[in-house]
Amino acid sequence: MGKRRKIHEIDHTNDIRYRGVINYQHFRIAAWLFIAAAQISVMITIASKFNPGILASFGTLSTILSFLKELATPLLLIANFAVILSAREGYRKLLIRFGALSAGVFLAYLLLFERYAVGLMALSRTREEARAMLASMIAGNGFISFNIFLDLFLCTLVMFFLNHQPKKVFVGKKLIIFRLFALLPILYEAVSILLKLLAGLEKISLSPFFFPLLTTKPPFEFIVFIALALFIKRRERKFRKNGKTREEYNEFLGTNANSWHFSVHAAIIMASAAVIDFLIAAVICSIIAGPAYGTEAFQTAAVSAAMFVLRCGIGASVPLLFIAPVMLLFSYNRKPRFPALDTYIPIAGIILIVLVYFESIYDVIRIGAEMKGIGI
Questions:
Q1: 333 contact partners, CB below 8 Å, separation of at least 6
Q2: Which of 36-50, 62-76, 303-317 has the lowest mean pLDDT?
């Protein structure tokens, strides 16, 4: 058996042959399709507030489609990693893209909520009453979080502060200050998780205007991201510690070997995080529902406890188990056949989401009209 090569000994002359067949573009396309499909679940939930029978008919479909949303964020995050590692797009372009999309979701939500939803309900009551009623309907359990682009913006910001080499101001010994800025988006994520936890426990009441500012990632998915970011940083430090230059490290990032190492490491971290998250969720549910064990109320208490921990994000990382094996087929530096699609994938995704909402709203109006004997 040959001696295992250290990472600083690997280059294109002694690279491995295997390269994953899936590239970042495949993950982006799948994620946008999952996001669009998940919006149907959102509309089913909202429609059930007006007609409970809808949930009885489409509850299973709503659960399945909602599950797809949990797969979208990690897929987009891994695609983001791939774009950064392969140097296809700079941090500036990614930050502008995700920052603009985050702001767009925030503004669109304010427009839909304040102008149209509140405006329509205020036809028969005051705006304050309409606003309170809507808030109760869309967030009966304390909050809703849906702005996944905010997660992508914050995660890209962490990578930027950890890996970018500033040429002015934060140079030399001041570089550590720049690196410490990575704590700011991490702190934002932590505060968001805390607010969701307190809202779920009904300790605080969040204004509906906070909803688009909440992150969507479960706590353990956030830990997975931090672990991958630190893996990349440690790997660079280890590589350059052996006398290699930054240029040589950038060449190393283009090797099949490093792509494979990243995929294996990501798969192990994802699977481990999903299992640990599930076990923690099971323990918390047991503690909450334990006092009712042996009584008729135990089943109801167990379901209520499970719903609570999931809304707080505990146990919500289990879908990573489905992504972990796929990572072994993924290569961050495999070039897509049609690079120009990068521009059109998010545009097509947004159009698809808008079409889903228009079609769903039309169906809700049509069903309501039919119930009143009005044909459309």
A1: 19, 82, 85, 86, 253, 254, 255, 256, 258, 259
A2: 36-50
